[in-house]
Amino acid sequence: MRKQYSKETIKKSKKPERTHKQQDSKTKDYLVKEPTELLPFLLQEKVKNSRNSVKSVLTRGQVWVDGKNIKQHNHPLLPGQTVSIVANKAALKEEALTGISILHEDEAIIVINKEAGMLSMASKNEQDLTAYRQLTTYVRKEHPKNRIFVVHRLDRDTSGVMLFAKSEAVKTKLQENWTTMVKERIYTALVEGVVRDEENTITSWLTENKAMHVFSTSYDNGGKKAVTHYKKIRSNNEFTLLEVQLETGRKNQIRVHMEEIGHPVVGDKKYGSTVNPLKRLGLHATTLAIIHPTSGELMQFKTKIPKVFLQFSK
């Protein structure tokens, strides 16, 4: 049985709507209606969707009160004052990103939505544009010594939620405690054929050969145990759209398990697919829920199902 978790949904912040008095800085203004302090006010107004994100806004110097930059959490506010949230340098830097967008950023982590076709990190061709390279450039605009650390990967043709750490200590903590800190990993898969079961669980042992092809067996042959839960969203005569939840996170797990049940992921020639109307792999990392590595807060990051998946499963 799959575990259910209560969680706070983290959505991408809307772009600020107005122009601040400072040149080229976009802002959103909030009117103070009763005496309070700055941090509680920002939380009440939901300027960001988590306490960590709100603190980051203060730390970066994005908050102005009646035209004065304020970073103190307990700064007193009076009725009639205007609190302005200035688009940070990060928001301006994000405009230069290609094939990725930032879902969440704080002092410890960056969470992105990666498009299909974008490499997660370095390939044999050092000139390839990668998510890692872009984010490294992105954080170094704040400080030249800033770094980014890969916590996990998505295949080049898999899109969706991906997590990076901002320090080696955070990366190590996440990787060494991945099974306990990651509370939910959900993918959306467009697969070939009509999946008959409304929901089911696949359990097998996965092994990889020298050609980097992963094989599945129903018995323990010394490989890694892999457990995949799936639920049918909808289907037509050609394709089925599935919600797939990982209990374990093995290499190519979903792709191998879909081939095993006779419904390979669309566009996945390596694991049995014979058609590719999407011109990409029919796999998208929709949801990632984690225990935040420094605050201990349970956070959930979500992205929308790609429209083309919905189109081909009508």
Number of helices: 8
Q: N-to-C SSE series?
A: EEEEHHEEEEHEEHEEHHEEEEEHEEH
Query: So what's the CATH class of the largest domain?
Result: Alpha Beta
- The radius of gyration is 22 Å
- Domains counted in the coordinates: how many? 3
CATH topology assignment of the largest domain: Pseudouridine synthase
Q: Which band does the percent of strand residues land in?
A: 25-35%
Number of DSSP-assigned strands: 19
Largest sheet: 12 strands, mixed
What sort of overall outline do the alpha carbons produce when their principal axes are compared? elongated
CATH superfamily of the largest domain: Pseudouridine synthase
Poorly predicted ranges: 1-25
CA-CA gap between termini: 29 Å
User: Average pLDDT value?
Assistant: 87
The chain-level structural class is alpha+beta
Percent helix among the residues?
10-25%
The CATH architecture term of the largest domain is: 2-Layer Sandwich
List keywords for this structure.
disordered N terminus, alpha+beta, Pseudouridine synthase, five-stranded antiparallel beta sheet, elongated, 314 residues, Structural Genomics Hypothetical 15.5 Kd Protein In mrcA-pckA Intergenic Region, Chain A, 19 strands
Write a compact overview of the structure shown.
The chain is an alpha+beta fold and 314 residues long.
